[in-house]
Design a protein that fits this description.
This protein is an alpha+beta fold. The protein has 4 helices and 10 strands.
């Protein structure tokens, strides 16, 4: 006599387990594709240069009533960035910041920034205004942007602090009123 033995595990029959096992290759393929995409993403993100730029007024610790324009550049990526130059921009007008215009305590330029490193540049307010006297008149009419050029040719830009932007606009307005 042939007796059929039926196996059940977790309340599921053999036929139900065979059906469930048909999904295993599909789930395995999806998991493999997800692992490949994740590894490619992680490998590629380290190749991108990421810089954070901030420009704002800073009061001098040593000289009374002296303000500086402070520019901070931080490498927030994992790749080393070679910063070649800084520039100011408004609309279509660009003014490249000269290396000789930075005050004491400023970082060198060009500079190599590794992951997490920061470069600081300081320009005395009076020197900043003197250099901008020769700049085109449309400079204060739009949003003022500070920019950084890297050795890869990539440009990084950021709006300047509101207080600094207002001060520059007021300076140009006074200059137009009293030539």
């Amino acid at each position: 006599m042939d007796a059929q033995i039926s196996y059940a595990f977790l309340g599921l029959s053999e036929a139900q387990w065979e059906f469930i096992n048909t999904f295993a290759p599909w789930l395995s393929a999806i998991g493999t594709i997800a692992a490949v995409i994740t590894s490619l993403y992680l490998a590629m993100r380290d190749r991108i240069i990421k810089l954070k730029i901030a420009a704002f007024f800073k009061k001098s610790k040593f000289e009374r009533d002296t303000h500086y324009i402070a520019i901070y550049i931080t490498n927030i990526g994992h790749r080393t960035a070679n910063v070649l130059s800084l520039y100011w921009k408004s609309r279509k007008t660009i003014y490249e910041q000269e290396r000789t215009e930075f005050d004491q305590g400023s970082s060198d330029l060009p500079i190599k920034l590794s992951d997490g490193e920061e470069a600081k540049y300081f320009i005395a307010e009076r020197r900043f205004k003197f250099n901008f006297d020769n700049f085109k008149s449309d400079f204060p009419k739009g949003t003022i942007i500070i920019g950084v050029k890297t050795s890869t040719g990539k440009l990084f830009e950021s709006k300047v602090d509101t207080a600094l932007q207002t001060a520059i606009a007021e300076y140009f307005k006074k200059r137009e009123d009293n030539p």
